[in-house]
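Lab notebook, entry 657. We have the chain sequence and a SMILES string for zinc ion, and the next step in the workflow is to get a structural model of the bound complex before anyone spends time on docking refinements. Request logged below.

Task: model protein plus zinc ion, output structure tokens.
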Amino acid sequence: MKYYLTTPLYYVNDKPHIGHAYTQVATDVMARWKRLEGNDVFFLTGTDEHGQKIERTAQAAGKEPKAFCDSIVPKFKDAWKKLDISYDHFIRTTDPEHEERVQSVMQTLFEKGDIYKGTYEGWYCTPCETYWTDLQLEDGKCASCGRDVEKLSEETYYFRLSAYQDRLLKLYEENPGFIAPDTRRNEVISRVSEGLRDLSVSRLKSSLSWGVPFPVDDRHTTYVWFDALLNYITGVQWPGGERFKYWPADLHIIGKDILWFHAVIWPAMLMALGVELPKRVFAHGFWTVEGEKMSKSKGNFLDPLEAIDNYGLDAFRYFLLREVPFGQDGDYSESALAQRNNTELADAVGNLVMRVVTLLNKYTEGKIPPRGKQEPGDGNFIQSLSIYEQASAKMEKQEFDKALDIIVGLARNTNKYIQDTKPWVLAKEDTDRLNAVLYNSAEAVRILAIYLDAFIPDSAAGIRKQLNVKPQLLKGAKYGFFEEGHEVGQAKVLFKKLEAKPRHAFERVDLRAARIVSVEDHPEADKLYVLRVDLGSGQRTIVAGIKPYYEPAELEGKTVAIVANLEPAKLRGILSEGMLLAAEKDGVVGLLSVGAEPGTQVIAEGIRPRAAKKISFKNFGKLNISVKGGKAFVDSLALSAGDKPVTCERVKDGKVE
Ligand SMILES: [Zn+2]
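Result returned:
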């Protein structure tokens, strides 16, 4: 049977991040699984290279758009190589074959009346390449990314999407598996039920030139989404190429943000063209990193390639699919990754392989023994090796986490079987029985490697090497393959235990720029001021012992660094919600000041604070903050806020207390 699956085309204005890696790994695992089932698989991935955003990014980089894309595409290909992504074809929307086919689609749809000329009025978000209506805008900004939008009124060609509402609803109803997971399916059905608007599919060349020329009107350029979606058929040489035998797609794996395009617009386009529809669109969720949304401004960009360098390819691949049910959002954390690796890969799988190969080398001269004296209990164990139906049912629904639970369960079962039967005791008492236990265990390890081949191919190859067997398909995952006398290899550690990297204590501290609004004497203490400070989001009171060093006029209007997540404390009857930072040297005291807007977070080089909890005064005191040459540091890491250094005017070198 053929099986055709795809990833979305990735926009080439950035380097690959964890979201890209996630889609790639999931699609790769599905492709490998289908190959292991014996199918003729075609796995398509690629890059989306047209549109205003790329035109502008290229311009900013001083390059022609195509040359710019040429410089980015290798980064994606290198990343997929490092992630061991087994795609069969990499399509670029700038491929001439693709562009020609896109034009032929536009021409056909125009002739059929599914594309017509009109005028567009609406709000356009350039980064998202999306038009919004007045109602869709959120606070006057793009409803997707929150950026400014431009009002556009221009001649355009429309795709008659509205004509397909009934057929789309019928599609969803008759094919419950067409959109997954179910929650997403329900969202789409309810939106489509509300009615569909025709979709603008061209822009005037004057506003967008970097795209596929619109065939029926040379003053226009094809809308980038229309062009990109068509890759799924142009990538298999629609209409008449040899590869078109793979169509229809069995599975489009995408991120949930582009579900509308894939579950609504794409099938409508195919209906208009009279091309068979894909079978399934799966929209996966998003990752936060250590509990926070990933963004460049937070400095928590997670580079998947760095993660592989730090933890190993298979630990990373395994974690992505095991940690979170596919379709839901998840949180990436180093400690969760280490935990999965240690308990499931190292303890369950790695330990089993090491044990079995070591036992074979120790007791049967590194050879597979005869099947020996089987006992009734062995039947249950052997039965437990037949997990294909369970695992495959999960894989058909892209429930990767559950499939892995079943597969790793096989390793746990086998560990228990060995524990219960005690081959090291049998070795002294009953060779026949020992042979049976070792034979059965060796079969279990061989079968385990077949299943794991889809998920962690590197490690699966490592297991095969230790057993000295060739790759096998899933139909080989049946008991009874080994022949007596087969020589196995040497035992080798497959998975190293990982430790999440220790955190810098500064990560627990929330330092913020705060503007001093007012200064009053503390009614009960000579050395204390009661300050009101503005943190951008609101004001708070801080009690500070700086009266001997600063006049009120010197303080008012000054923007200083404060510890914003310090446990509140009453100082002589007044609640202080934070602390100012000051350096001291030889009796001179100077506040740390910040040149950024109130509320801006203070960061240290390479460290992104993620303080969710309050910090005690005692724990804060353990940090080594100092001033050198008038600039503030924690250990040797410079402190800054909004790209401006945290400084001290009065004290050039001293300790911050
Ligand atoms: Zn936007």
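Notes for the group: Residues 330-476 form a domain with the Isoleucyl-tRNA Synthetase; Domain 1 fold (CATH 1.10.730.10). Worth checking against the assay data. The chain is about 40% helix and 20% strand.
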